[in-house]
Specification:
InterPro entries: DSBA-like_thioredoxin_dom, Thioredoxin-like_sf. By secondary structure, this protein is α+β, with helices and mostly antiparallel strands. The chain is built from 9 helices and 6 strands, in the order βαββααβαααααββα.
């Protein structure tokens, strides 16, 4: 049974939601029968690729908040992440376009490495690594297990841009307005970083229906 997950590497709730989903999946009796596909989504595709500002300044400008309000918002997110075993260095993050990372994740998917790619790019982004630097991107790709030459070719071209665009188009087609967005068996949806129990319930309900249909 397939579970599709629309996500942006720059979304803290996507990373938190990933960990909570994984907890629910670990407690699901039939987890070996679940196929997970990560889908690209961009919260702000207008951001420049060079990362001209840090995330606190970007958030203050984007949402019309003071730096004090941004820090309070970040602290709430950091506490949520910490409860899931994630360290988030929000003030060190570059506010830059995530398209290249998404294209590399799409490359990884063709090698059966989509899951590890998603995790490693989340980890890199929220640890404040400079993902606008080609050398840093290639280091992450090496950790994932991607071929250096293939990864470099993707970074220096527009390869897999159409895959990213299609994922975003598909998201809009089904009414996705924010991420993370989970679709179970092409039918049931869970939006946001819900509890592991919510994800477990969605897995059980959709799996039961999927099993009945496949045994019919």
């Amino acid at each position: 049974m397939k579970v599709e997950i629309w996500s942006d590497v720059a979304c803290p709730f996507c990373y938190i939601g990933k960990k909570r989903f994984e907890k629910g999946l670990a407690n699901f009796e039939h987890n070996k029968e679940i196929e997970i596909e990560w889908k690209s989504f961009q919260l702000d595709p207008t951001l420049p690729e060079e990362g001209a500002m840090k995330l606190p300044d970007y958030m203050a400008r984007q949402k019309g908040l003071s730096q004090t309000e941004v820090k309070a918002m970040f602290q709430h997110v950091i506490q949520m992440a910490d409860s899931e075993g994630i360290e988030m260095k929000m003030e060190q993050i570059n506010a830059a376009n995530t398209l290249t990372m998404h294209r590399l994740i799409q490359l990884a998917k063709t090698k059966g490495l989509g899951e590890i790619a998603e995790e490693e790019f989340f980890k890199a982004y929220f640890s404040g690594k400079d993902f606008t630097n080609i050398a840093i991107l290639l280091e992450i790709c090496e950790t994932i297990g991607l071929n250096n030459a293939e990864a470099k070719e993707v970074i220096e071209s527009e390869k897999f841009s159409d895959h990213v665009s299609k994922d975003i188009y598909d998201a809009r087609t089904i009414g996705v307005r924010g991420v993370p967005h989970f679709v179970f068996n092409d039918k049931y949806t869970v939006s946001g970083a819900q509890s592991s129990e919510t994800f477990l319930g969605a897995l059980e309900k959709s799996y039961k229906e999927w099993k009945q249909n496949n045994n019919a």
